[in-house]
Design brief:
By secondary structure, this protein is of the alpha/beta class. It contains 15 helices and ten strands. Helix 14 links the parallel strand 8 and strand 9.
């Protein structure tokens, strides 16, 4: 539809051309035909000028409209991208919440099933003992002593092996522990340490760290032992102080790191979900030459960083100097995690420790269960596991020696345990050694109890105490 402005412009152009022809005809004396030609020519030029100007104006309008449309499209794309990012974040939160809820539900179901198994075992044990008591004859008077010539040697009483605890995986092949070394002077001990290092008589003993209450092996701690020229064992407590005083601890730490990586590679062949704790001395962090050697080795094995945990004493973290802090930062930068042991009190700073890369804290079970710690700390020991967990630190209860301690630690929400109750430190069998060699292989029950079990009168007796304690907490007092 033609706009009114266009009709008005056309009428104006016709009037202007006609006026021009009339002026030429009346004033200039030009003939009518010539005046008409001039008027038509002027009308033609006006029409062309109007057409060109309208085309230019339309092009400008179209350009502005295209620019506006491009800006709107860009804004729409930006809004769509923002909505997509928000939707992805919401989906991630929902997925994380669902996975966390599923993990907690699965863990709770496992604990409930385990508790039910313990209650059933306890009921069977009690029923068995009641049957034995009911079947026992009543003795009214002591029988007369038998004659000497009628006494026969009695048959040996039957013995039962301790009931194996929960399965531990992976189970490395462990050799029996050698006999402890005899006492010696400091100079003799220093000479024995130098000789053992030079002749590569450094052994790695493994002690498992298990999950509670399932008692499934999750980590191993590499414990250092040295053998002298007579194959007598030097425990870590016997030679560490002397080695630090003699400047040999750096060489020992480097050898321990090498052996720990070798052990970790052997363990990861059977299971990827396993880790090794390796003890490192404060003197190694403070010695630039020794630390650079260790750092180069750890850099070469950086792929194992998630499974190799470097362990330091609590006193080391409380007296860090500039050099030690830089060394720790270099290790943390390469992805290695730290653990703290030899804890003497519960005055901890979880935020600061987490910032330094600490992911595990080992506390003796006796220290956690000591009521006197309540007065010396700002937090109750039962809340310590939750507090550390907020900063990504796992609490490990070590030196556990009794089932009663395990029951109390479960009330403190402790999820990892270590101690002679589960297994003592045992040397790793050399790679390639046969399981049927002269040295007997460690049995599964040796991985979950210290030493050989004593003879008992019933197969259910070894775990009766722990089962009864757990059953009482599950069903309540009668």
């Amino acid at each position: 539809m033609i706009r009114i402005s266009t009709i008005f412009i056309a009428i104006c152009m016709v009037l202007v051309a006609a006026s021009l022809g009339f002026v030429l005809y009346s004033v200039a004396g030009i003939s009518g035909s010539e005046s008409a030609i001039v008027a038509l020519t002027a009308l033609t030029f006006l029409i062309l000028y109007n057409a060109v100007s309208m085309r230019l104006r339309d092009r400008t309008d179209v350009g502005n409209q295209i620019a506006d449309l491009s800006g709107g499209t860009a804004d729409l794309a930006r809004q769509v991208a923002e909505f997509g990012r928000r939707l992805a974040a919401v989906e991630g939160r929902v997925t994380s919440a669902n996975s966390t809820s599923a993990d907690r539900t699965q863990a709770l179901a496992g604990e409930i099933n385990e508790l039910g198994t313990l209650v059933r075992e306890l009921a069977a044990s009690v029923a068995h003992h009641e049957e034995m008591l009911a079947a026992a004859p009543v003795v009214h008077a002591p029988a007369p002593p038998p004659r000497e010539d009628l006494i026969q040697p009695s048959a040996p009483a039957p013995t039962y092996a301790a009931a194996p605890a929960y399965a531990a995986e992976p189970e490395p092949e462990l050799a029996p522990a050698p006999v402890a070394a005899i006492p010696r002077s400091q100079s003799q001990l220093l000479g024995a340490i130098k000789s053992a290092i030079d002749e590569n008589r450094l052994d790695i003993y493994l002690q498992p760290m298990v999950t509670l209450p399932q008692r499934k092996v999750r980590y191993y701690e590499a414990v250092t032992r040295l053998r002298d020229e007579r194959d007598q064992v030097l425990a870590a407590d016997d030679f560490i102080a002397v080695a630090e005083a003699g400047g040999l601890i750096g060489r020992i730490d480097h050898l321990v790191m090498v052996r720990s990586v070798q052990v970790l590679r052997r363990l990861m062949v059977r299971s990827k979900d396993v880790g090794v704790f390796c003890n490192v001395s404060a003197a190694t962090l403070a010695s630039p030459g020794t630390f650079i050697q260790c750092l180069d080795f750890l850099e070469a094995n950086r792929a194992l960083a998630p499974s190799l945990v470097l362990e330091f004493k609590q006193a080391t973290f409380r007296h860090l100097g500039p050099v030690e802090s830089e060394s720790l930062a270099a290790l943390a930068q390469r992805g290695y995690r730290f653990s703290i042991d030899h804890v003497t009190d519960l005055r901890l700073e979880p935020r600061e420790l987490a910032d330094r890369g600490v992911r595990f804290i080992k506390v003796p079970a006796a220290l956690l269960l000591d009521d006197r710690q309540i007065a010396t700390t700002d937090i109750h020991p039962s809340d310590l596991s939750d507090l550390l967990g907020r900063y990504g630190i796992d609490l490990v209860a070590e030196r556990i020696e009794g089932e009663r301690s395990v029951v109390d630690l479960l009330d403190y929400d402790v999820r990892l345990g270590q101690g002679f109750l589960f297994a003592p430190p045992r040397p790793l069998r050399p790679e390639g050694a046969s399981a049927t060699a002269d040295t007997p292989q460690t049995k599964p029950q040796d991985l979950n109890g210290a030493g050989n079990p004593a003879p008992v009168s019933s197969p259910a007796a070894p775990r009766a105490t722990g089962n009864a304690a757990l059953a009482r907490r599950a069903v309540g007092p009668n």
